[in-house]
Amino acid sequence: MSVPPTPLSPNARKHKAPPALPLSVFTPPSTGTADRFPFPPSPTSVTAESIVDASVVVSSADLNQWKSEATAELKAKLSGVVLLAKADDVHQLVEKLEPKIADVPILSVSVPFRIENGSPVGIPSSSKVPVSLSTVYSTQTPEAVEALTWALSNGHIVDVDVQFTTDDKSYDSLEESLSAASKDANPNSAIVISNVLPPVDDLSLPLVKLLTHPTYQAYQAHTASLSLIPNTYIKFLPPNWREPTPPTPAPVGGVKPEDSFEKKEWKRRIKMYVGPALEAFGDQRIIFGTSPSPESYTKSAVGDWYELVKELLAELGIEQEGVDAIFGGNAQKVYGKKQ
Fold first, then answer.
1. What whole-number distance in Å separates Cα of residue 37 and Cα of residue 185?
2. Class of the 44-335 domain?
3. Residue 243: CB partners within 8 Å, gap ≥ 6?
């Protein structure tokens, strides 16, 4: 008589380890085998049909700062924005907002939502544009779970700005909080995690050592675990590395300048984080934005981050469908639905 398999405990699937990425993802093949590998598509040929910037921090009802930093291509393809309001002027800003700014649709304005007290605070009662919520998560508390449960059960989109040391214990608390809050979530709700792709990193740590470092191993395992929480997405934002995004100079005479050493290092490091995120979330649950997390110490110009991400996705061989999803389709799906 065959013995039925023992059912898995609820935590057995918790730390789904993604497959290890080969070093060939991050380095070119040797000259002896180069002819067997196709060259990655040019970044100029891999561009999204339309772009939604899902992270635009504003203090007034205009996009002047954004426009001054954006490239011509980015401005031409912009089909929507998600505005992140600051706590001290959220009501004044929301009252001024129209459904469009300079013909750019506002998919949502994300207003600060305090979870320390377990109840909604600072949410405007009326708005001409859809309102979503944003909050800072640093540690697990009953009040935080209560507040997140309220938001998700009422059908809100919640941007969760992760602010903690990237170790196993901190990731565990985040997973437990989001899982508990999601149990009775409204189907229209969603969790959008920011400041995790990429996470806080020590730029002085060599890439070879990063591969086996505990913080990177924790990132790999817990990125997979977070992806198992229903209706959870992850934002691809400028990292909080205390250094500005390396610039991408405009082409000279139609020729793109060679990347600086700093930019090459950033791209190699970011690829190490994008790989596990793609394995876990897929290209249908990653959302592009240009403003760093509001709690970040990093400064990043809109155009520089866009060019870096576009080149990086091309070098990783992401197909057109995935590029369109990351740069716009996923944000439309999450923030564009009725809230």
1. 46
2. alpha beta
3. 203, 298
Give the pLDDT of the chain (339 residues) as one tens digit per residue: 444 444 444 444 444 454 455 444 444 444 444 444 455 555 556 789 999 999 998 877 889 999 999 999 999 999 999 999 876 677 778 888 889 998 999 999 998 888 887 666 567 777 889 999 999 999 999 999 999 999 999 999 999 999 988 888 999 999 999 999 999 999 999 999 999 999 988 899 999 999 999 999 999 999 999 999 999 999 999 999 989 999 998 888 778 889 999 999 999 999 999 999 999 999 999 999 999 988 887 889 999 999 999 999 999 999 999 999 999 999 999 998 755
* Residue ranges of domains in the chain: 44-335
Is the Cβ–Cβ distance between 195 and 296 less than 8 Å? yes
Cα–Cα dist 167/21, whole Å? 21
HSE, CB side, 13 Å, CA atoms: give it for residue 128: 13
Joined together, the tokens standing for residue 3 give 């013995």
Amino acid (1-letter code) at residue 55: S
87/160 Cα distance (integer angstroms): 15
Indicate the pTM of the whole model: 0.86
